[in-house]
Amino acid sequence: xxxxxxxxxxxxxxxxxxxKNGNEQDEQVQKEEHQDERIEKLGxxxxxxxxxxxxxHLLSIIGEIEGHDNLSGNSKTTKYEHVLPQLAAIEDSKxxxxxxxxxxxMGGDVEAGLAIAEMLASLSKPTVSLVxxxxxxxxxxxxxxxxxxxxxxxxxxVIHPVRMNGTVIGVPQTFDYFKLIQDRITGFVCRHCKVNRxxxxxxxxxxxxxxxDVGTILVGEEAVKNGIIDEVGGIDKAIRKLHELIxxxxx
Length: 251
Fold this sequence. Notes:
This protein is α/β, with parallel strands linked by helices. It has one domain (43-250): 2-enoyl-CoA Hydratase, Chain A, domain 1, CATH 3.90.226.10. The chain is built from eight helices and nine strands. It has helices spanning 2-42, 80-92, 110-121, 139-144, 172-192, 197-204, 221-225, 235-250, and strands at 44-47, 55-66, 77-79, 96-108, 127-135, 148-151, 156-159, 216-219, 231-232. Strands 1, 2, 3, 4, 5, 6 and 9 form a seven-stranded mixed sheet that branches. It has a two-stranded antiparallel sheet with strand order 7-8. Strand 5, helix 4 and strand 6 (148-151) form a beta-alpha-beta unit. Helix 2 packs parallel to helix 3. 32% of the residues are buried.
């Protein structure tokens, strides 16, 4: 009689263990599906399976930075209405300890790009950026808005004057407005990296580098030598630096 009871107890425990394992597997599958969905829809993910047990939010600035108008459905875009609320949530989060920004962008809307850059610059959490394929035009302020910046050796940055699409009225006020926008961009960049204003404006107006345009292309080490990016390096250095900044903040 007791032997049967022991067997029944063993079977019940086996069933509970099996059910527990099944629930854990279901939770893992749901977690992975949610993670994949966030990457697909927003290009964002939280990195937390590290030895330091630090939660890092990964933010990607990809393709063209979309402003008030929707771009073609065939275009890769970063939507500022997705990024700004997420950055506000990160600032308010007790769990997220740092932000890693990866960039491969052609630039885009000036107002949207500056808004993202200002939000990143004002975060109290440690931030690191990594320029991969490129960070052109209004992508430059975003790349320098973090506490520390990296660029891969083949990464590029294009610095050029403000451009405007659509109808342009040929009056002095139009050119004054162009100058105002350009001063905002120049001022922000020079406040958040080591390049001085005269050098940055010189690179903006360079005529011998780009065909049918003005501006400068900086590749890898050139961006560091000109004081725009802090260091040449890849994802390993970027994550390591962010962990160091988080540790320093905690101390």
